[in-house]
Amino acid sequence: MKYIKLVLLIIVFLVLIIKSPIQFLTLSQDKILNNFGYSDYSFFYIEFLLYIFGSIPFFLFAFSKVTPKEFIDKNRKIILYVTTIVYTFQRIFKTFDVTDTGFHLSKAWGLLTNTTYENSDFLIGTSFIYGLWLKIINTPSVLWGRVGYVIVVSMIIMFSYKIYEIYFKKLTHFFIFYFMIFFFIQYNYYLSVNYDNLPYLFSIIGFYFFLKYPSKIKAEIVAGFFWGFCIFLKFNYIPILILPLVIFALDSKNNKKPVKTLGNIYLGYLLSFGLAFLIMFQLNSINPYFTYVKENLSKPEIKSDEYHKVYDQIINFKKDKESSSVGNISSDSFFYLTDSLKQDSLRCDPIYKSENDNYVVSKLFKIYFTNLWKLIHRSIPYIFFFTVILWIITSKISGIVTRSVFSFISTFFIYFLSHYNLEINLEFLVSILILVSLFYVLILHSIKDGVKKLIIVTTMLALFSFPGSLLSFNIICRAGSALLLLSIPLAILVDERKYTVNKNITLNFSYFTIIVVSFIVFSSLNPKNYNNSHRDLSDRSLLINMFSAKGLYGIHTFPQRVEVVDDFLRFFEKENYERNNTPGVFIGWIPMFYYLTEINCITNNPWHDCLTFTSFRKEFDKNSQKKKPVYIVFSSKFTRNPNWPLADESYKKKDKVWLGYLRKEDYLRFWMKDKSYNLVFENSMFQVFKLEKVIDNG
User: Which pLDDT does position 298 carry in this prediction?
Assistant: First the structure.
């Protein structure tokens, strides 16, 4: 054992030497690295510190007097938390997305800084808490926003494990949970505090207090407070109101005072509602919030008239709109064509025959139940498949080596199915595996009441975590609810082992756990998943260029993206306008730039492309009458494309969502014609128009 520890110690030292500043400074003298600047050195030092932090468990083991098994058993939490922080932290420096993460940042920043327009919606609580985090340094910084993400993700893993270890204390159970965290971190790739991970964090904090301190009044009130606050963080969590009733039904036999417990929990709900009301009062958001809720709980589908234009006209329009001045563009060049008064459009984008508001609550819950049924339907063949595999392994194959080999063959079959089947992505397959696991748990008869409650509540929290998203069950991976929902049944199945169906059929569920855990490990090690970058190049090793813009310090991507974004942001850095008090419009899947330029969004939702044209136009017209946008920015490339600003046309042929954005762009260009806007900046990615009066005053 001494020699093993010595070898381990030597390996750790060699890795640290290779990654050390001395080695880096030596390499930087090479001609290849002569272009390294201050940012590259800074990033290297940060990475080196992460390696030092990550080596702590290895040093502790090397200088201990215990076996590896004993060391891991005694230091589970240290190993888990160090792994989580290091693995999560080292991912935040690479990739740059301006869509989803841009929305999260701009919405949070705008809630606390936008002095021009209302900023209330279903996500106001999440925006408020994330906004408080961003305001700590009081200047836009994507890296600082991602540090908040590291904290939230680490806390989700920490509280998930605290809940998990209450019932599952064996070392085998620890390894099941430990291997799951890599997949969870890889697929929580928004790299931001958002309306998926933050509400789920609050929900499991409440659940932890409820389980850890049973029958304690304060714990029950705290649990209710965190559960109730989830609704403020994300209104779509409103089904969590029924959770105490479910717990009441589960505990009615064992709890001596179930009614009192129920009352304590709902008291916590009331306290959270009171705090939420107080926060909205301070933000002057009470009326806007309830107005927004009322208007968006249910909207009728918005039908558009038949369109009159064809795809080749889009190409002609693109050529015309490259003109340097709005005034030089004929109104006939726009798709925003109307009757003789040119006031009401008859155009509907090609491919789209009707215009829907995809984010109406009623529609989101319809999608929820549709996809839930789809998941159940898709899971049935997998249940049969795994049942046959387990029957063969248990009853037809002798010898642990042969059984293990057959298990790994089954693992690779599922692995290749998930990575080469275009109809089922990895996240959806994980949801199927969760459902299969829960099915096997349900057929067991020896589960304790406490574990039953754990499964039911964990399942409910997972189900609460994805209403409100078009991504459906994929959200359970991004929110973090899949972590417990898969680990718990796998731990149960490991303990139960053999299950006899009849005299001829016996199933050993421990092999199912081996197959699923192995599948998760192989998937996590797959470069495609390890390098998973949201709307950036899939190979993270190519993302080595850092932005020079102040708000993007520490963020790396590929050189072409760095060039166009830095050029764009340098323009705004030189502009003389009042930060956080100047209205503007950034159209074309680029909500991130409201945050980075500190320009106020003229509409409630900074991600205009998620709105119908009718909704966007109505709000834009209303607000622009009060105060016209000083800057109007168009994106000439589609930022859902992971390769932007490269290879735009080929991607657009696959992803037609960009067509919905054209109508808004057409309208804005037509609206600008007689309002003295001039083109003041342009590169291969962006066009910036500025109100002439502001130019003159400057």
Answer: 60
Paired strand residues for 678: 690
Whole-number mean pLDDT of the chain?
A: 79
Which segments of 348-465 does DSSP mark as H helices, in order? 361-391, 400-420, 426-442, 449-464
Residue 319 has a CB neighbour count (10 Å cut-off) of 9
Q: What is the mean pLDDT of residues 291-307?
A: 58
679 or 389, which is more confident? 679
CB-based contacts of 95: which residues, under 8 Å, 6+ apart?
Answer: 189, 191, 533, 534, 535, 536, 540, 543, 555, 556, 557
Cβ-contact 476, 464 below 8 angstroms? no
Overall average pLDDT of the 73-81 stretch:
90
- Confidence band for 344, pLDDT divided at 50, 70 and 90: very low
pLDDT digits (tens, 9 = 90+) for 114-139: 765 667 888 899 999 999 999 999 99
Quote the longest CA-to-CA distance of the chain: 90
Mean of pLDDT values over 170-176: 93
Among 325, 328, 348, CA closest to 337 = 348
Contact 282, 235 (CB under 8 A): no
Residue 538 has which token pair? 């899939």
Q: Which long-range contacts (CB under 8 A, 24 or more apart) does 274-280 make?
A: 275/229, 275/232, 276/125, 276/229, 276/231, 276/232, 279/125, 279/128, 279/232, 280/120, 280/124
Amino acid at 374: K
Question: 């409910």: which residue's tokens?
Answer: 460
Kindly give the pairing relationship between strand 600-601 and strand 583-587.
parallel
Which of 573, 584, 642 is closest to 608 using CA atoms?
A: 584
